[in-house]
Every structure is written in structure tokens, then in C-alpha cells.
Amino acid sequence: MRIATYNVEWFSSLFGDDNRLLMDDGWSGRRDVTRAAQTEALGVVFTALDADAVMVIEGPDQGRKRRTVPALEHFADSFGLRAGKAVMGFANDTQQEIALMYDPDVVSARHDPVIHAATKHAPRFDGTFHIDLDVDATHDNVQFSKPPLELAVRTKAGRELRMIGAHLKSKAPHGARGHDEVMRLSIANRRKQLAQAIWLRRRIEAHLAEGADVMVLGDLNDGPGLDEFEDLFGRSSVEIIMGTGNEARLYDPHARMALGQRLGAQPTSARFFLSRQKRYLQALLDYVFVSDGLRGVAQEWRIWHPFEDHRCYEEPALREALLTASDHFPVVLDIDI
User: Fold this and answer.
1) 272: domain range?
2) Which of 272, 293, 307, 330 has the most CB atoms less than 10 A away?
3) pLDDT tops 90 at residue 185
4) Could you give the count of Cα atoms lying within 13 Å of 158 in the half-sphere of its Cβ?
5) How many Å is the Cα radius of gyration of the chain?
6) CB neighbourhood size of 168 (10 A)
7) pLDDT(213) > 80
8) Which residues contact 68 (CB under 8 A, 6 or more apart)?
9) What does pTM read for this prediction?
10) How far is 189 from 229, CA to CA, in rounded Å?
11) How far is Cα 323 from Cα 304, in angstroms, rounded to an integer?
């Protein structure tokens, strides 16, 4: 099977209120890219991926009029994708939903935010997590702006697993005045993101305690050495989710490579244009983590970076499509399940 995670920048802007692709010369949410150009580029990328399942991050909006699942299924039908069915979980108010597109002939998936004894310290992702964030003996109430998507998945071969799609994000200090307030808000937002990572990790541990295979996919907006406050808090969100010490570990080779060295070449999965500096910033933000039970049958991880993956670079149409489609690139896992 091929399983991928793909953050599609402002996918929602490509659809009208009827949940159908606009495919016109109006501007998309991407800089200097029309809706038609981004849509066509996404068609090229998704067709080349030919994945059995894709965890879509920043999926089309679920709102009063708009619907995520019909929009994604219309997109899949427009390009003849095998992954023609979609499922989502708890909606959010950011116009950036998390959803899974999948091939129903190969895999089944349903939203399943299960509650059992092992999850008593980790509520459903639409709930509230109580944790002392600043060691003041007072519990803080933490909520997700983008609740992770928690799925029960079964493959055609009969393999069952828990799949969690996540998009963690630390808010920028909007409205802050002066250096001190910027720092205060930045630290508070960073602390909240780490609390969300702890919440996610507890859900992971609950599933592992039940003997389940677990896969966590998505954009964590974080990684070792990426954040200026990492030394202040000691660990990144990625390290929390992977597990440390005697905890059961999750594995992603790109995360492991980045953790193993602070300097030198590292894989990257996103590329952002810095308008003031007239240059690009690259970072490793997107991951496909697996538990030990899945690691033994995992065959290959690839980041479809057009300048770092030779197979992507040597196909000009795919290379250009990857650059046009999003500021993130797909992370792909081929696995025998």
C-alpha cells in the first residue's frame, strides 16, 4: 500500500459554495498562482502519487454551506483518482480541515474517536485537555483549533490500525506591542502547542496500550532545532509525539535523521518564500510516524521534494506541479499491510 500525507496550501480556495472546483483565472490562496493553475498542478501530483490513502492537511472548508467530503470527492472524480472516497472528523473554524482520501477497494476508514479506560487522561480531540502548562499548580484548559482526525482503518488484507491525522500550529503573536509582549505571547502560544502534542501523545499511548498499530501523519509545524524556544522547553512537539526515554516509540526516518544532527544536510518537506528577504526558507514539518508493529513491514519513506528527490526532479512536469500545487510536499510511505 501507498499512504501519504499532503498539506495543500489553501485547498479550500479552489472550490465554490457548491463544493465544485472553480478552475478559473481568479487568484488562489497561493502567491501569484491562479485557481486553475493550482488545481491542474494538484491533479498532476495526486495522479503521480497514485496513493491508496492520502491524509489531506488544510482540506476544503466544512461550514454552513460548504462541505469537505463532497469537495474532495469531486476533486478525485475530476482527475480519475483511485482515492475517490473521503472521510473527516471534527470540523474547525479555520477553513483548513483534516480529511483522508482513500481507495475503498483497498482500505476502509471511519472516524472513531474511541473512549475507553486507557484514554481516561486524554479526552477526545473535540474536548478540553487539562494540564498545568507553567508549573503554577493550576490547570490550564487546552483545546485544538484544528482537532486531529482519529480513524479506525482496515486494509483489504485484513490489517487493522489506528490512523491519526494532525496539524499542530503555534499562533503568531498577533496584536502584540513591543518586544516584551511579543515574547510573552510567543512563549504562551508555544506552550499551548506543546500541550497539544502531549495530549496527542497520550491518545497514542492509549491505543498502544490496547495493542493497536498506530500511524500518525501530518504537519506538526515543528521539529528539532526549528524553534527559537526549544531550549526553553527542552523538547520539540516532534520528540514528544515520537516518545522518549522508556516510552513506546514511533518512527519516521526523516525525524530520526534530523534529531541525530543539529548541523549538516537534513531532509525538508516545505518551502516558503520570504518576501522581504527575496529568498526561500525550507523546513522539515511533515511526517508519517509508525509504531513498532508497522515499522517491520514499512518499505520506503519518501518526501516528494522537487529539488531533493531525484525521481521527482527528473520528471519536469511533476517537478513544476509540485512547486505550483503547494508550499508543502507530499510525504509518502510504501508499506506492506
Assistant:
1) 2-335
2) 330
3) no
4) 0
5) 19
6) 24
7) yes
8) 59, 60, 61, 62, 86, 88, 91, 97, 99
9) 0.91
10) 11
11) 11
Total domains in the chain come to 1
Map the chain to HEC letters: CEEEEEECCCHHHHECCCCCECCCCCECCCCCCEHHHHHHHHHHHHHHHCCCEEEEEEECCCCCCCCHHHHHHHHHHHCCCCCCEEEECCCCCCCCEEEEEECCCCEEEEECCCCCHHHCCCCCCCCCEEECCCCCCCCEEECCCCCCEEEEEEECCCCEEEEEEEECCCCCCCCCCHHHHHHHHHHHHHHHHHHHHHHHHHHHHHHHHCCCCEEEEEECCCCCCCCCCHHHHCCCHHHHHHCCCCCCCCECHHHHHHHHCCCCCCCCCEEEEECCCCEEEEECCEEEEECHHHHCCEEEEEECCCCCCHHHHCCHHHHHHHHHHCCECCEEEEECC
Span of 229-233, 236-240, 319-323 with lowest mean pLDDT: 229-233
Distance CA 75, CA 232 (A): 43
257-301 pLDDT tens trace:
988 876 667 899 999 999 889 999 999 999 999 999 999 999 999
**Amino acid at position 26, single letter:** G
